[in-house]
C-alpha cells in the first residue's frame, strides 16, 4: 500500500469512505478463500505455535502479545505476524564491575 | 424427445427457490410446454401454497415413493393452464422418507412425460438437497445480492461440481436497481466475478410477488409484474430464445451492459 493510501486509511477509521458493496465484495472473497479450503480449523494456531518456536530459539519474545493475521485485499494476500520482543534487562554497573541481577545467585553456607 | 429435469436450489433459505420454481413452470406452460413443478421439501412443503393448489392435494411425493399410489395419481393438473402440473411434497413426514435412488426413478418417469420437470429443492445441503439433485440434468442456483446468500451459493456450487453436475446456472433474485446504482448492493458483474458460473437470469425486487402469493396466483402470468416478466424471460431463455434478462429498466447503462454480455448467447 502506498504512503498516501495508508495516510487516507488512518484519517478515516473505517477505511476511506467506500460504498458498502466494495466491503461486501472484499469480505466475500476472503470468506470464500477460507471456505473453499485451504485452511482447516486450527491452522492459524499451528502457524502461531510454529512461528513462536522458531523465533524463540533466537530472540526473547512476549508470547502473549503475538498477533498473526491475514491481510487480504484485491491486490495482494499477506500473512502478517507481529511479534513483540521482550526487553532484556540492561547490565548494571556497580563499582566498576558489571553485574546483572540475573546472574546473582545466592550462595549457601553449607555445614561441613 | 426426452424432457429436461432442472433442480432449483440455493443453499440459503428464503432466496426465492419456490417462487422461481412456481413461476418459471407456469411461464413454460404458458409458452406451450408440458411442465411439472415438484416439491421435494418434505415436511415443510410450500410449492403448493405458492401456486394456489394447496386445496387440491390428495396424494404426494412420499405416497409415490412408498408405493401407495402411482405417480400419475399424485400429480395435480393446474386448472388455469392446461399444461401446468405440480407434484406436492408430504407435510407430515420428513426428508428421510425419500432417497436419491427413489428420486432418480421418479425423475426418469417425469422426464419421459414432461418437457420440463422443475424440482424445487429445500434449503440446506443435507439429504433434502441430495434428493433434489439426484435426478437433475441441469441445476439452477438462486441467490440474492447478499453476502450470506452468495457464500452459501458458492458452497453449493462446489458440492454440485463434486457430484459431477456440469450444467449449473445462476439466477440473481431480488435485485434492487437503485441500491445497485448507489453502490450499496452487489451488482451482477460483482456476483459473477465471485461465483464464476453462467448467468441464466435476474429478477428484480417486486412487491407483486407478495401480492400474488397471498392470492395463490402466479406473477409470471401477469403482464404488469416486473418480476413476473423476468420469470417469463428466463423461461424463454431456457427454450433457447435470446430474451432480455429483465424488463426495461430506467438505467440504460445496466441494460446496455447486459446486452453486451449476452450478445449472441442462447442456452
Structure write-up:
The complex is a heterodimer of chains A (about 110) and B (about 270). Chain A has a domain at about 40-85. Chain A has 3 helices and 4 strands; from the N terminus they run H-H-H-E-E-E-E. Chain A has helices at about 5-10, 20-35, 45-55; strands spanning about 65-70, 75-80, 90-95, 95-100. In chain A, strand 1 and strand 2 form a beta hairpin. Chain A is elongated. Mean pLDDT of chain A is about 70; it is low at about 100-105 and about 110. By secondary structure, chain B is of the alpha/beta class. Chain B has helices spanning about 15-30, 45-50, 60-65, 70-75, 100-115, 125-135, 145-160, 175-180, 190-195, 210-215, 225-240, 250-260; strands at about 5-10, 35-40, 75, 85, 115-120, 140-145, 170-175, 200-205. In chain B, strands 3-4-2-5-1-6-7-8 form an 8-stranded mixed sheet, sandwiched between helices. In chain B, helix 1 (about 15-30) crosses helix 11 (about 225-240) and helix 5 runs parallel beside helix 6 (about 125-135). The chains are: A alpha+beta (about 110), B alpha/beta (about 270). The interface of A and B includes residues 25, 32, 35 and 36 of A.
Task: Explain the layout of strands and helices.
The complex is a heterodimer of chains A (112) and B (267).
Chain A: H1 3-11, H2 20-35, H3 43-56, E1 67-72, E2 77-82, E3 92-94, E4 97-99
Antiparallel strand pairs in A: 1-2, 3-4
Chain B: E1 4-9, H1 17-30, E2 35-39, H2 47-51, H3 61-65, H4 71-74, E3 76-77, E4 84-87, H5 100-113, E5 116-120, H6 127-134, E6 138-143, H7 147-162, E7 168-175, H8 177-182, H9 188-195, E8 198-204, H10 208-215, H11 226-238, H12 252-261
Helix pairs in contact in B: 1-11, 5-6
Amino acid at each position: 500500500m502506498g504512503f498516501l493510501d495508508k495516510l487516507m486509511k488512518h484519517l478515516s477509521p473505517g477505511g476511506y469512505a467506500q460504498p458498502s458493496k466494495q466491503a461486501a465484495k472484499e469480505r466475500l472473497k476472503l470468506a470464500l478463500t477460507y471456505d473453499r479450503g485451504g485452511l482447516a480449523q486450527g491452522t492459524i494456531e499451528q502457524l502461531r505455535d510454529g512461528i513462536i518456536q522458531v523465533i524463540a530459539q533466537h530472540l526473547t519474545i512476549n508470547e502473549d502479545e503475538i498477533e498473526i493475521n491475514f491481510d487480504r485485499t484485491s491486490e495482494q494476500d499477506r500473512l502478517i505476524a507481529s511479534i513483540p520482543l521482550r526487553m532484556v534487562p540492561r547490565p548494571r554497573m556497580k563499582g566498576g564491575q558489571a553485574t546483572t541481577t540475573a546472574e546473582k545467585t545466592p550462595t549457601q553456607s553449607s555445614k561441613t | 424427445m426426452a424432457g429436461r429435469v432442472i433442480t432449483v436450489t440455493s443453499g440459503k433459505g428464503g432466496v426465492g427457490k419456490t417462487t422461481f420454481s412456481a413461476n418459471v413452470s407456469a411461464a413454460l406452460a404458458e409458452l406451450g410446454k408440458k411442465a411439472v413443478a415438484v416439491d421435494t421439501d418434505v415436511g415443510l412443503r410450500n410449492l403448493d401454497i405458492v401456486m394456489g393448489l394447496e386445496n387440491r392435494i390428495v396424494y404426494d411425493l412420499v405416497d409415490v415413493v412408498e408405493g401407495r399410489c402411482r405417480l400419475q395419481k399424485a400429480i395435480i393438473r393446474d386448472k388455469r393452464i392446461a399444461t401446468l402440473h405440480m407434484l406436492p411434497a408430504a407435510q407430515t413426514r420428513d426428508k428421510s422418507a425419500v432417497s436419491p435412488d427413489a428420486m432418480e426413478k421418479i425423475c426418469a418417469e417425469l422426464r419421459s412425460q414432461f418437457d420440463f420437470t422443475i424440482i424445487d429443492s429445500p434449503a440446506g445441503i443435507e439429504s433434502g438437497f441430495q434428493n433434489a439433485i439426484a435426478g437433475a440434468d441441469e441445476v439452477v442456483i438462486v441467490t440474492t445480492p447478499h453476502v450470506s446468500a452468495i457464500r452459501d451459493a458458492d458452497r453449493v456450487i462446489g458440492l454440485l461440481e463434486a457430484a459431477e453436475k456440469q450444467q449449473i446456472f445462476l439466477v440473481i433474485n431480488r435485485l434492487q436497481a437503485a441500491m445497485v446504482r448507489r453502490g450499496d448492493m452487489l451488482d451482477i458483474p460483482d456476483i459473477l466475478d465471485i461465483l464464476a458460473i453462467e448467468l441464466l437470469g435476474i429478477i428484480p425486487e417486486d412487491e407483486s410477488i407478495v401480492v400474488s402469493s397471498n392470492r395463490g396466483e402466479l406473477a409470471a402470468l401477469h403482464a404488469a409484474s416486473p418480476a413476473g416478466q423476468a420469470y417469463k424471460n428466463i423461461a424463454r431463455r431456457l427454450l433457447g430464445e435470446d430474451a432480455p434478462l429483465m424488463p426495461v429498466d430506467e438505467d440504460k447503462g445496466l441494460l446496455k451492459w447486459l446486452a453486451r454480455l449476452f450478445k449472441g448467447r442462447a442456452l
